[in-house]
Amino acid sequence: MKTKDLAKIKVGITGATGKLGKALTKEFREQGAYVIGFTHRNEKNNMDSERREFNELINWSCGNENLLQNKLSELDILVLNHGINPKSMQTKEHINKALEINALSTWKLMQIFETIASESNSRKTKKELWVNTSEAEIQIALSPLYEISKRLLGEIVSLRKVNLFNDEKNFLKIRKLVIGPFRSDLNPIGIMEADYVAKRIIKKSSRNSYLIIVTPNPITHVLMPIVEFSRSLYANLVNKLYS
C-alpha cells in the first residue's frame, strides 16, 4: 500500500491502546487513514479518554473473534498487534494465556480476515494483513513463553504467506512485522521509542515488501530473510510431495 494511498483506506489495529498501537494510529491518521482500534481494555475512564485518538475504538476479548466479523469486513488493512509478555512460567494457566493471546487469537482473526478478503476479491486493491510477530520469533527475549508463542505465530504466518502466494487468486497480501525491543508496558527497558518504530513501519510499508523489520539488531536483518526462505522452501517441497 503506497503511503499516498493511505487517505483512501480504513485500518484496523488490535492492541490499539498499547504504545505501538497508539503510535501506529497516530501515523495512519496523519496520513489521512480512518483508524478503528480494537482493545482488550474495558475500564470506562480509560476508554473515554483514549477514544479521541481513534476514529472508532471497540472493546473485544480473546475467544470472541467472530463477533468482530462485520467490523473487520469494512477494513482495507488489518494490523494484528495485540499480545502479552508473561514473565512467569510457573503454571499451566500462564502457558495457556500466552498461547491464546499471542498466537491462537491472532490465528483466528487471520482466518476471518482471509475469508473476508476472498469474498471481496473483485476489488482492484487487495486487502492487507499485517502481523506483528516480534523479533522474539527468532531471538531470545528473556521470556520463554513470549518466545514460544511468538515463534508459533511466526511459523503460522510464514505458512499462510507461502500458500497465498501460490494461490492463483492471490486475494490477500500478508506482511510480517518483525519488531525489536521498544519501550512499552510489556517491555519498560526497550531501547526504541514506539513513535520511531511506527514511523519506520509506515515508511517501509510503501516498499511493497513482505518483511518489515525494525530493529537495531543486525543479526535479525540477516537471519530473518534466511529463516523465511528456508520455511518457504520447506513448505513448497512438502506441498509437491503430497500433491
Describe this structure in words.
- With 243 residues, the chain is an alpha/beta fold.
- The protein has a single domain (3-242), classed as 3-Layer(aba) Sandwich (Rossmann fold).
- 46% of the residues lie in helices and 15% in strands.
- It contains seven helices and seven strands, in the order E-H-E-H-E-H-E-H-E-H-E-H-E-H.
- The protein has helices at 19-30, 44-50, 69-72, 92-119, 144-166, 194-205, 218-242; strands at 10-14, 34-39, 56-59, 77-80, 127-132, 172-179, 211-214.
- A seven-stranded parallel β-sheet has the order 3-2-1-4-5-6-7, with helices on both faces.
- Strand 6 (172-179), helix 6 (194-205) and strand 7 form a beta-alpha-beta unit.
- Helix 5 (144-166) packs across helix 7.
- It is globular, with a radius of gyration of 17 Å.
- The two termini are 33 Å apart.
- The mean pLDDT is 89.
Blueprint (SSEs and pairs):
Blueprint: E1 10-14, H1 19-30, E2 34-39, H2 44-50, E3 56-59, H3 69-72, E4 77-80, H4 92-119, E5 127-132, H5 144-166, E6 172-179, H6 194-205, E7 211-214, H7 218-242
Parallel strand pairs: 1-2, 1-4, 2-3, 4-5, 5-6, 6-7
For the structure shown, list the relevant keywords.
single chain; 243 residues; alpha/beta; Rossmann fold; seven-stranded parallel beta sheet; 7 helices; 15% strand; globular
